[in-house]
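call fold(seq) -> C-alpha coordinates
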Amino acid sequence: QVQLVESGGGLVQAGGSLRLSCTASGSTNWNYAMGWFRQTPGKERKFVATISPSGGSVEYADSVKGRFTISRGDTKNTVYLQMSSLKPEDTAVYYCAADPSIVVPTTTEEYLYWGQGTQVTVAS
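ret:
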Protein backbone atom coordinates (compact mmCIF):
# COMPACT_ATOMS: atom_id res chain seq x y z
CA GLN A 1 0.00 0.00 0.00
CA VAL A 2 1.50 3.28 -1.12
CA GLN A 3 1.73 6.01 1.48
CA LEU A 4 2.85 9.60 1.02
CA VAL A 5 4.04 11.74 3.92
CA GLU A 6 4.56 15.47 3.55
CA SER A 7 6.68 17.68 5.78
CA GLY A 8 8.15 21.16 5.85
CA GLY A 9 5.07 23.32 6.13
CA GLY A 10 4.81 26.18 8.57
CA LEU A 11 4.45 29.91 9.05
CA VAL A 12 6.62 32.27 7.03
CA GLN A 13 6.64 36.00 6.30
CA ALA A 14 5.78 37.26 2.84
CA GLY A 15 8.86 37.17 0.66
CA GLY A 16 10.29 34.23 2.55
CA SER A 17 10.98 30.65 1.54
CA LEU A 18 9.97 27.15 2.55
CA ARG A 19 10.84 23.71 1.27
CA LEU A 20 8.25 20.98 1.36
CA SER A 21 9.21 17.32 1.24
CA CYS A 22 7.20 14.26 0.36
CA THR A 23 8.42 10.73 0.88
CA ALA A 24 6.64 7.71 -0.50
CA SER A 25 6.65 4.18 0.83
CA GLY A 26 4.94 0.91 0.04
CA SER A 27 6.29 0.26 -3.42
CA THR A 28 9.51 -1.56 -4.28
CA ASN A 29 9.86 -0.18 -7.77
CA TRP A 30 9.08 3.49 -7.54
CA ASN A 31 8.42 4.80 -11.02
CA TYR A 32 5.71 7.34 -10.37
CA ALA A 33 4.98 10.85 -11.45
CA MET A 34 4.69 13.05 -8.39
CA GLY A 35 2.99 16.35 -7.92
CA TRP A 36 1.95 19.05 -5.51
CA PHE A 37 -1.50 20.56 -5.13
CA ARG A 38 -2.90 23.08 -2.70
CA GLN A 39 -6.27 23.79 -1.21
CA THR A 40 -7.85 26.56 0.83
CA PRO A 41 -11.07 26.20 2.86
CA GLY A 42 -14.14 25.95 0.69
CA LYS A 43 -12.16 25.83 -2.55
CA GLU A 44 -11.21 23.01 -4.85
CA ARG A 45 -7.77 21.48 -4.77
CA LYS A 46 -5.55 23.16 -7.33
CA PHE A 47 -2.50 22.03 -9.25
CA VAL A 48 0.85 23.54 -8.26
CA ALA A 49 3.62 21.48 -9.84
CA THR A 50 4.42 18.03 -11.17
CA ILE A 51 7.50 16.05 -12.11
CA SER A 52 7.87 12.96 -14.28
CA PRO A 53 9.29 9.68 -12.92
CA SER A 54 12.70 10.42 -14.42
CA GLY A 55 12.67 14.03 -13.28
CA GLY A 56 13.20 15.14 -16.85
CA SER A 57 9.84 16.81 -17.27
CA VAL A 58 8.16 19.33 -14.99
CA GLU A 59 5.07 21.50 -15.17
CA TYR A 60 3.99 24.43 -13.02
CA ALA A 61 0.85 26.40 -12.45
CA ASP A 62 1.16 29.91 -13.87
CA SER A 63 0.71 31.37 -10.39
CA VAL A 64 3.93 29.79 -9.11
CA LYS A 65 6.20 29.83 -12.17
CA GLY A 66 9.51 31.44 -11.40
CA ARG A 67 8.96 31.17 -7.65
CA PHE A 68 8.52 27.43 -6.97
CA THR A 69 10.76 24.57 -8.02
CA ILE A 70 9.86 20.89 -7.93
CA SER A 71 12.62 18.32 -7.82
CA ARG A 72 13.32 14.72 -6.95
CA GLY A 73 15.67 13.52 -4.27
CA ASP A 74 18.51 11.09 -4.76
CA THR A 75 16.01 8.33 -4.14
CA LYS A 76 13.16 8.48 -6.61
CA ASN A 77 10.52 8.16 -3.91
CA THR A 78 11.15 11.65 -2.54
CA VAL A 79 10.02 14.90 -4.08
CA TYR A 80 10.61 18.46 -2.95
CA LEU A 81 8.87 21.74 -3.54
CA GLN A 82 11.12 24.72 -3.00
CA MET A 83 8.95 27.79 -2.54
CA SER A 84 10.46 31.26 -2.71
CA SER A 85 9.11 34.81 -2.79
CA LEU A 86 6.07 33.55 -0.95
CA LYS A 87 2.90 35.60 -0.98
CA PRO A 88 -0.09 35.57 1.37
CA GLU A 89 -2.14 34.05 -1.44
CA ASP A 90 0.13 31.00 -1.32
CA THR A 91 -1.39 30.15 2.07
CA ALA A 92 -3.02 26.73 1.80
CA VAL A 93 -2.78 23.10 2.72
CA TYR A 94 -0.28 21.55 0.33
CA TYR A 95 -0.80 17.96 -0.78
CA CYS A 96 1.64 15.56 -2.35
CA ALA A 97 0.32 13.16 -4.96
CA ALA A 98 1.70 10.23 -6.95
CA ASP A 99 0.63 8.23 -9.95
CA PRO A 100 2.22 5.33 -11.88
CA SER A 101 2.39 7.50 -14.97
CA ILE A 102 5.22 8.28 -17.37
CA VAL A 103 3.91 11.74 -18.10
CA VAL A 104 3.29 14.80 -15.93
CA PRO A 105 -0.30 14.76 -14.69
CA THR A 106 -1.75 18.15 -13.78
CA THR A 107 -5.26 17.33 -12.56
CA THR A 108 -6.46 15.74 -9.35
CA GLU A 109 -8.30 13.05 -11.31
CA GLU A 110 -5.04 11.77 -12.77
CA TYR A 111 -3.42 11.00 -9.44
CA LEU A 112 -3.97 7.72 -7.65
CA TYR A 113 -2.28 8.36 -4.29
CA TRP A 114 -2.43 11.33 -1.94
CA GLY A 115 -0.76 12.47 1.23
CA GLN A 116 -2.49 14.00 4.24
CA GLY A 117 -1.30 17.53 3.52
CA THR A 118 0.85 20.09 5.26
CA GLN A 119 -0.21 23.63 6.15
CA VAL A 120 1.66 26.58 4.70
CA THR A 121 0.79 30.00 6.06
CA VAL A 122 2.31 33.17 4.62
CA ALA A 123 1.89 36.23 6.81
CA SER A 124 1.71 39.67 5.23
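The mean pLDDT is 95.
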